[in-house]
Please model this.
Amino acid sequence: MKRRFTLWLPFLFFLAFFIIPQLTAEEQSISEFISQIQKSLELKDIPDYLKSFSNEIREKEELIVKNRFNVLQMDSVALFKPSKLTQTEDEAKLYLQAFFQNSYSVAIETWHLSLIKVNGQWLIEQKNVLGRVRIMYKIKIPSGRAERVKSIEVKHADIKLSFKDAIVFYDNIPGLETGLLILGKGHLHFSPSDSGEKHQLDLIYKVSFLEDELAYAYLRFSDYFFRKNIRIVKDPDEENFQASILDRNKAHTLFSKYYSRSFTVENSLNRELLTTLPQGEEAVFSFKGKKLGDVSYIYSPFTPEEINFFRWKDEKIINLYSPHESGKGRKIFISFAEMFKINSYKIEIDFKPQQFYISGKAKIEVESKVDSLQRIRLKLNPRLDILRIYDEEKRALIYSQDRLRESLYIYFVHPPPENKPFSIEIYYRGKLVPPDQVTDVIAGSQYERNLGYMAARSETYLFSRRAFWYPSPPGDDYFKARLRIIVPPEYQCISNGELIEKTRLNDVERVEEIEKTGSSVYIFETKYPIKYLSFLVGKFTKVEEDSESLPLQHFYSSGIHFQKKGLIEEAKNIIQFYESKFGPYPYEKLSIIRRIWFTSGGHSPASFIVINELSQAQNGTGYVNKSSPVDLSRWKEYFIAHEIAHQWWGQAVTWKTYHDQWLSEGLAQFSATLYLAERHGEGVLPSILKKFSQWTRKKSIWGPITLGSRLSYHDPKVYQAIIYNKASLALNMLRDLLGEEAFFKGLQEFFSRHKYGAASTKDFIKTIEEISGKDLTIFFRNWFDSYVLPEVKVSHSILKEEGGYILKLRITQAKELFVFPLWVEWIENGNRVKKKLIIDEKKEEFNFKLKSKPRKIKINPNKAVPGRFN
Model:
């Protein structure tokens, strides 16, 4: 027996050291299995690839993979690591992203694989391609196609480009015409069909249509557009044309300049710039004119105003409108903002002020408003890098970024169910310097002093709407939020909503978090919906607070040496006054922060306001700077009254489009003037109205109130004079026209109907008309939609009659009919008499029976009606 055992020893030794390790080595890992599939696909070794599939689905998969390589003509594929893996000893489920590509296109797929283990090797038992296969393109110019042509003409809507003896470079997409680059002597003709847009051209270029010489043009369009709108006359003598190296290099340089500006996104899998193909009438023409410079004509049938004529040197919209096309009704479209709604955010932010560095995690609850929602678009600052995005099942989602337009597109594995909330998580980080705010703001002081400026001892950091510091809605969704913000221990933080917790970060668990030990943690929650999130970091001192009815707090930043006690009491008075006029204060608290900054002014996010103050040593007395159209800071309550008004107008109720921006700034300015009159008496109004009227007459030519933010493209003072001042004057006239009771009842109803939502000018008109019972069509058409001001001739006569006098007033409007209240005053028997006339016809006559002869007759004494009165 012993001898037999001795004989078996060499075999057992061989088994233990050679056979068993080899059996163990044959146990395949998931990572090795994916690498095996990747290698087979890279080599286009379809038989080897199919070995990874079970017999039951191998034939079906063979058809699919041959379709990718033979029909779609893909020549390579990359598999990206599983985003979610569920594994037992003999089974596994995982998700893979497959990136097929060739020289001109890519196909992006999400695979759901069910694996089983057979003899230590993984096999795919089931494979599902989830969602749509996303086809995108890699356009190149120059490609293999170039022609010298006799002429090429591009006509569309209100524009025509024409070139003679030109070189035309085609893109590399086979079988479709989607892009051209033209070199040669060209000509531009652009004539807007909208009269208001012709007026804009006349103001900017002194002509109502544009003609210019071109040296090149880069065009993107659909194949349908090419066949319908582009006419090329080829030169038969140039059939064998070959573009020179110089021309090809020039074409490549121009293509590189313009390619990223239209229809392109950066994909998340390999960071390559990919493009979609324009659809239908979609088109972008980019060119450089001899006089105009670098401009683009953009036509998008999927927007409310299809034509955008854009100048790149100062990034300004010259024209934006819908063309007048006969026989076409109003178009219907659904924007991204209407396809889904954001219900809530849970955001965690770690902010390092000295490095301007943000690390963030945003959990967003979204609700689809359509069936089969494939993707959503959010706004995110392109300086922030996305680390990963998960759905609520922790599956990594494919995304792409349009950095030029600050847009983030997220693609779902499965379309979420309609009207059922779901969540996504976005992890991101990056260096981000807070930009200046341009919405819900007021400009700085109208006083000039002999000032010695001093550097601020410490800065503050305000991240608000314009920063896009978190993945924001593309429209005006109102949502609730919970924010957890970590800052160094020497800093404080103020944000939207209620501060529900403030702690120190002490229990860190990972090595990379040790440096955060002792950091301050602020947790805020909003009780009411808000339209955007903001936070302010700095070194603050709390001066005073009041929680009697509404929690009020007053802070000032380091560098400010005077406390301004009494600010809380003033804020209480302002809020109570506005509540009596507009309705209840819409948020849970109000924090007022005075900070040292480089410019004066303010900003008003939901539930807190920021007042900027210059760091200065004052020397001498101030005087009014008349170059500021909007500022009324000779009354110290003005800034805070304007900013608090934004809690109603701009925050609780916001504007739908740029045409409706006056609903924020115009109503806030009007509200501030109401409070100044309440605080200091009606005697303050004449100088305010005269100032507003003066600036309105001076700047009205640049456009109507409903031109909105486009007014600021030419001159910031134009925007202030029209959106703040003219709108405030129009509201004041409307109050006089309707009477106090009907007017403020209408405002309260408008606020109540549209609270925590976006409203339009049409919504405002509808509400006011319903409450007042008056047809206000002419009033709003000429005061809000026209840049023209009334031209009024006024004459009067005094007739002696038995027992007194008759004062006759004749009012004649020379041009357009405006509806307005006209105040008239005179001195009678030593007393000042004021009368209000309602002007609603082009010619009117009014008679007043007086006991004494009137003296010092004044028409429109406070200039409350802007225009020319003779």
